[in-house]
Amino acid sequence: MELGKLKQLLGIAGTDQDALLQFCIDSVTETITGYCHVDTIPGGAMNTAYRMAMDLYRNENLGSTDSSSGTIASITEGDTAVSYKENTDYTQSLLKNYRAQLSRYRKLSW
After folding, report:
1. Coil, strand or helix: which one is 59?
2. Cα(107)–Cα(37) distance, integer angstroms
3. Nearest 5°: phi and psi at 75?
């Protein structure tokens, strides 16, 4: 996967997000190679890999210093307390959303 292509697909200019995007690339590469039991991303799965990296970057809100990354669970007005519920559905389903596309590249492992 190429950092430049991912930046172009996401519409990102400049280099401030490069470390986060490289993390997405590394994460997706690790997920795909681990699931498929291969050393590199298969050529036919490259577009799927880019889609996964884009989803990871957008849905994980990477680079945000805001601690409110989840949805609001409760609000208290007296002394102002807000609690957030973390959205774990996405992180647990990243591979599930692309399992059908990646299964054809999966190799048998002992």
Report:
1. helix
2. 6
3. -130, 135
Q: What are 4's two structure tokens?
A: 């430049």
User: Is residue 68 a contact partner of residue 21, using CB atoms and an 8 Å limit?
Assistant: no
Q: What is the pLDDT of residues 27-83, one digit of tens each?
A: 999 999 999 999 999 999 999 999 999 999 988 777 665 554 456 566 677 777 766
**Cα–Cα distance for residue pair 8/17, rounded to 1 Å:** 12
DSSP 11-32: T--SSTTHHHHHHHHHHHHHHH
Within 8 A by CB and 6+ apart from 51, the residues are: 98
- Which of helix, strand or coil describes residue 95? helix
User: Minimal CA–CA distance to 32: which of 110, 91, 81, 105?
Assistant: 105
